[in-house]
From TrEMBL:
HAMAP family: Hydroxylam_reduct. The lineage of its organism: Archaea, Methanobacteriati, Methanobacteriota, Methanomada group, Methanobacteria. GO terms for molecular function: 4 iron, 4 sulfur cluster binding; hydroxylamine reductase activity; metal ion binding; peroxidase activity. It comes from Methanobrevibacter curvatus. Binds 1 hybrid [4Fe-2O-2S] cluster. Binds 1 [4Fe-4S] cluster. It is found in: Cytoplasm. Belongs to the HCP family. Keywords: 4Fe-4S, Cytoplasm, Iron, Iron-sulfur, Metal-binding, Oxidoreductase. NCBIfam families: hybrid_clust, PRK05290.1. This is Hydroxylamine reductase.
């Protein structure tokens, strides 16, 4: 039984599962320990490494699509995968080392992806995005792939087809070279998991550009298009960036109706936030900003995720919230106002824009002459899928302590791994929002 924060956690009885080889117990899976000598913690650290490597691969895929290859990243992906092969690595320290190395490589891939986004689409700047439909036929783009969006915007220019974003495409509205297109008209829906409702509601053609796609319902599968490695039954796969079938489908579907709109603000790049550095310093030193919170990450519709909205709602007015990923949709409709011109809610972008948060944190450390863990910054992370494992290890690689994590524990972490994460990094589970805020601010 491990202690995670003040919670007692036991992952019994499924502490281990491995079916990597022909010796597997009963021909179905080793679930106590392996004939090969593999112990539960080793099996779980291998799974953890696989998750992190897959997360890095997703970012690397988008980077490669923008024409950037990096030898160090590619080499690590090969080595990291090889370390999880049957009977290669039974060494606990080595596998923890690989996890931390995955964190380091993930920082590199996020940094290169950010640079490639800026090189192609310009430095993001804040944009109030209209949420709701307008008259005219439409294409709704979901996922993370900004290059796909740009190519689609080029090909739909002058066709009368409007383009909308969904989920993690929202931050696209902040990039000058994307927002310059007048027919990028707004956003429909929120996080990835509202897609069945939203894709059903709006009679538009849908383009899924990356992960976090669900198998479609009958009501919209004939107007769903996928690209790259993304594929779901019933949808039409697009070849490269050739969108003529998608555009034809959008036209065939006819016009949407004008809806009453709400707005969401996105597009705070590191440059925008750091242009406020002197003001931020003055406000922190004048005790007008007490603490920064990075609240965000991946999100899912499971029990416990209401924590994040309540947490942000209950933060006192002298705090600033940075956010990113789908986690933002828990609270990005809130008007938190500003502190003498510094917004209290700052949307940094997609999950890979965690690197922007890191860049801001490093710059604030320089500004205040302190180490990362002495900065008045608390990270409150929501997680859902495997990219989140890569990002968590990036933060741990940087030595960030006292991260609060929820809504549930990563299932790959058994008692031994939890003990390590708690004793080394003081990783803490989400608790009660009010009590957590009180503890952090005390
Ligand atoms: S690699 Fe080891 S633990 Fe995995 S199935 Fe084979 S014997 Fe079992
Ligand atoms: S932030 Fe995470 S959960 Fe949301 S769409 Fe991106 S990868 Fe999926």
């Amino acid at each position: 039984m491990a202690l995670f924060g003040n919670k007692k956690i036991s992952n019994e009885p499924v502490d281990m599962f491995c079916y990597q080889c022909s010796q597997t117990a009963n021909g179905t899976g080793c679930n106590v320990s392996g004939v090969c000598g593999k112990k539960p913690t080793i099996a779980r650290l291998q799974d953890n490494l696989l998750f992190a490597v897959k997360g890095i691969s997703a970012y690397n895929y988008h980077l490669n699509e923008l024409g950037v290859e990096d030898e160090e990243i590619n080499k690590f992906l090969t080595q990291g995968l090889y370390a999880t092969l049957t009977n290669v690595n039974f060494d606990l320290e080595s596998l923890v080392g690989y996890a931390l190395e995955a964190g380091k490589i993930n920082l590199k891939v996020m940094e290169l992806l950010k640079k490639a986004h800026i090189a192609n689409y310009g430095e993001p700047s804040p944009e109030a995005v209209q949420v709701g439909s307008q008259e005219g036929s439409g294409i709704l783009v979901t996922g993370h792939d900004l290059k796909a969006l740009e190519e689609l915007l080029k090909q739909t220019e002058g066709t009368g087809v409007n383009v909308y974003t969904h989920s993690e495409m929202l931050p696209a509205h902040g990039y000058p070279e994307l927002k310059k297109y007048d027919h990028l008209v707004g956003q429909l829906g929120g996080p990835w998991f509202d897609q069945r409702k939203i894709f059903d509601k709006y009679n538009v053609a849908v383009l899924a550009t990356s992960n976090c796609i669900l198998t479609p319902s009958e009501s919209y599968k004939n107007r769903l298009f996928t690209m790259g490695p993304t594929k779901v039954p019933g949808s039409q796969a697009i070849n490269g960036y050739e969108f003529s079938d998608l555009i034809a489908k959008a036209k065939e579907l006819g016009s949407l109706e004008n809806e009453e709109k709400t707005t969401l603000t996105t597009g705070f790049g590191a440059g925008v936030v750091l242009s406020l550095a002197d003001k931020i310093k003055e406000l922190v030193e004048g005790e007008k900003i007490r603490r920064f919170f990075l609240v965000g990450g991946c999100d899912s519709p499971i029990q416990g995720t209401g924590y994040f909205r309540e947490f942000v709602e209950k933060l006192p007015n002298d705090t600033v919230v940075l956010t990113l990923g789908c986690g933002k949709y828990r609270f990005n409709d809130l008007d938190l106002g500003d502190i003498e011109g510094v917004p209290r809610l700052i949307d940094l972008g997609q999950c890979n824009d965690a690197i922007v948060a890191v860049d801001i944190a490093v710059a604030l450390c320089d500004l205040f002459g302190v180490e990362l863990n002495d900065l008045p910054l608390t990270i409150v992370c929501s997680w859902m899928e495997q990219k989140a494992a890569a990002i968590l290890w990036s933060l741990l690689y940087l030595g960030k302590k006292d991260i609060i994590l929820g809504p549930i524990l990563p299932a790959w972490a058994n008692d031994n791994i939890l003990n390590y994460l708690v004793s080394t990094f003081n990783l803490t589970p989400i608790g009660n929002p009010e009590e957590d805020i009180k503890r952090i601010l005390s």
